[in-house]
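[recover] target loaded
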């Protein structure tokens, strides 16, 4: 007999019922399946590609190593107070867990929800996440998910000259 964690795998469903009791247990993304370092998030934002949908934006970049897929979530303070931001992250995390099964590309994905996530139907979020992961997997398989070159994402920008004023 396998344990709940073994049968669930790394990309488990959101909740699993225990066979000998009425309690439920939440199955989390494993440590290997999550983005944990700021440098990883930054690399995905700066060098990765994007997929846009009505309720989320998914940033993705191929991993330098050949590990399995990893996911991270970020929500800007501009989207609401802490309660709203945490609710958005919880909803996106659950939708991602449901859509994550079978996704095996060696890619890092950062999910940025939009304000509409708070009002959207859960099924819509799951469908959008499945679509986003399918697009990411397709791009990786086709070899088109290579990171952008550093020249395209340079942090140093030259200031634009103002109209009617001389540069100093």
């Amino acid at each position: 007999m396998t344990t709940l964690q073994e049968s669930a795998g790394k990309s488990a469903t959101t909740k699993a019922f225990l066979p000998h009791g009425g309690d439920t247990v939440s199955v989390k993304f494993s440590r290997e399946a999550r983005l944990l370092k700021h440098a990883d998030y930054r690399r995905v934002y700066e060098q990765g590609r994007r997929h846009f949908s009505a309720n989320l934006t998914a940033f993705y970049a191929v991993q330098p190593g050949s590990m399995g897929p990893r996911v991270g979530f970020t929500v800007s303070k501009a989207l609401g107070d802490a309660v709203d931001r945490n609710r958005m992250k919880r909803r996106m995390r659950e939708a991602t867990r449901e859509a994550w099964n079978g996704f095996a590309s060696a890619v890092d994905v950062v999910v940025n929800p939009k304000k509409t996530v708070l009002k959207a139907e859960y099924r819509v979020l799951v469908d959008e996440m499945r679509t986003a992961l399918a697009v990411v997997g397709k791009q990786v398989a086709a070899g088109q998910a290579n990171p952008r070159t550093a020249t395209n994402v340079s942090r140093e920008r030259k200031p634009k000259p103002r109209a009617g004023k001389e540069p100093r």
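[recover] notes: The first strand starts at residue 15 and ends at 17.
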